[in-house]
Design brief:
By secondary structure, the protein is mainly alpha-helical. Helix content is 60%, strand content 10%. It has 4 helices and 3 strands; from the N terminus they run αβααββα. A hairpin with a 2-residue loop joins β2 and β3. The N and C termini lie far apart (64 Å). The model has no long low-confidence stretch (mean pLDDT 91).
């Protein structure tokens, strides 16, 4: 399959590739933030993400984008990790107040 990517699509793939090392899928807002140049309209980014999903290079689950060779469970894992981190941050805040006293 010959898949020629636009420069924006290449930038999207690069951003996702970096976070793929950590098994961390990105939302479209995060992809936009990590583009080397985010002067493109968000609508263009959305269109290119859809094109990459249709081409079979990416998958989307729960608003997160990741490479097609990854299991869709990676998005659920990310959400669970974020929930756990929020709980730990609350606990750390209260512990820091206690230690401050």
């Amino acid at each position: 399959m010959d898949l020629s990517l636009t420069s924006l699509q290449q930038d999207i793939v690069r951003a996702l590739a970096y976070f793929d090392v950590f098994l961390y899928p990105l939302t479209k807002e995060q992809v936009y933030a990590y583009l080397p140049r985010n002067s493109v309209p968000i609508q263009q980014l959305e269109n290119d993400l859809k094109d990459l999903v249709c081409a079979g290079l990416l998958k989307e689950n729960a608003g997160c984008y990741f490479f097609a060779d990854r299991s869709s469970a990676v998005a659920a894992t990310r959400q669970e990790d974020e929930r756990r981190a929020a709980t730990m941050l609350k606990r750390a805040f209260w512990i820091s107040l206690f230690l401050k006293q």
